[in-house]
Amino acid sequence: FSDFPMPEEYPNFPNHRQIAQYFDAYADHFGLRDLITFRTQVTRIEPAAAGGYNVSTRHLDSGAEETRHYRAVLVCNGHHWQPKIPDFPGEFRGETTHSRNYRNPQGLEGLNVLVVGIGNSGVDIACETAVTANQVYLSTRRGAHVMPRYVFGRPIDKFTTPLSSRLPLALQSAALSWMVKLDRGDQEKFGIPKPAHPFTAAHPTISSELPEMVADGRVIIKPNIAELAGDKVRFTDGSVEAIDVIIYATGYKISFPFFADDFMQAEENVIPLYRKVAPLDQPNLYFIGLVQPLGPIMPLAELQAKWAALLLTGQAALPDKATMEAAIAADQAKLRKRYVNSTRHTIQVDFFPYKRELEREMRDGRKRAR
Asked: 340 lies in which domain range?
């Protein structure tokens, strides 16, 4: 966050424990713990007749239930918590789980493990389990461009700058492809199939380990699953493998269990929000962090929160509904044109263009509020 830099000793890619420690330090530095009610589940949020929202909660320890009225609600429940598991023909007799439940490779030693999905979680799990498993298979429907963490000795995200983000998308894609090939070589030479879509048409998969794991045979790339058959899995290329454990790294459903179905839901992971924050017809309801950025999410969530604060205090105002509807439609059309058809890409944003969009919205919103 802009007002609390990460420790200087942190690496370029902090692990999850370091991120958690950073959040704890942030809360302690700004005295936020006294303002937070912990171990409390939000069970229902409903619009109140007189305005605002009635929020019902249940305490996880005592079971005590309570309903309070709030003038505004900020929804920050994220989008990586309700697993999405595909339905394949047949039955599997082994163990199945989702990447959400994965913590470490303990218990997978000596087993044949199938990881479904070649996104970042799937690739990380495949590489980690391959160290001690008998064999790891990585199943993918369309493949992915696998990019290393570092290119020419620099973190790969350092090559995306405010200036480069203004270049035509085709040029950005070509430049990225050229840099990765020059630094690491063609991924097909390692045994990773090349997808049909360009670099910038899908959320990037970043792994420095996967090419070597595949080249060494510790991870074997497989196409999509055709059928589950007891302790075996048949793939769309006709191959059959004996599998002990399937780990589905197949993404998540965007879900709001505290809203009634007729109030606010995300069908096929699509939710119409102005600038990915504000609904059309629910005043003083804002969504923070409901984006999938090409880059870090925390600075963008910070800007979203600042914009929401301006709106809540009357220092900024939203445009009229017709303007918001047109902006939402244009944004969704842009996503459909750029990305491969997948529920994974419905909340995708580019870091610098979206940052500029939020900053422009705050400036324009201040003018509208005058």
From this structure: 16-81+253-369
